[in-house]
Amino acid sequence: MFKLTNRQQRRSLWVLLVGIFLLVVLLIPTTSWVKSRTKEKAAQHNSQLSPLIMIPGSS
Predict the structure, then answer these.
(1) Phi and psi at residue 5, to the nearest 5°
(2) What is the DSSP string of 1-17?
(3) Is 46 exposed, middle or buried (0-12, 13-18, 19+ CB in 10 A)?
(4) What are the φ/ψ torsions at residue 58 (nearest 5 degrees)?
(5) Residues 3-53: pLDDT tens digits?
(6) CA-to-CA distance for 21 and 11, rounded, in angstroms?
């Protein structure tokens, strides 16, 4: 396998930590957005509208 130097190990750790940080930063607003959209869609789905069935040519 490859043998990493101490400098390469620190850089790899730094890149990993920055990647995890960015993932967490993006996960927080995404989670709240998904919850709000789900709540909106549930409210639309539970509306009291009755379906209208139209048959062509029936006047």
Answers:
(1) -75, 170
(2) -----HHHHHHHHHHHH
(3) exposed
(4) -95, -10
(5) 889 899 999 999 999 999 999 999 999 999 999 888 888 777 766 777 788
(6) 15
Q: Which residue has the tokens 């990993």?
A: 16
Report the chain's terminal Cα–Cα distance, integer Å: 78
Q: Name the residue with tokens 């029936």.
A: 58
Query: How far is 41 from 36, CA to CA, in rounded Å?
Result: 9
Q: What is the identity of the amino acid at 35? A: K
Q: 19 by DSSP, 3-state: which?
A: helix
Contact partners, residue 12, CB within 8 Å, separation at least 6: 4
* Contact assessment for residue 13 and residue 5, using Cβ atoms and an 8 Å cutoff: no
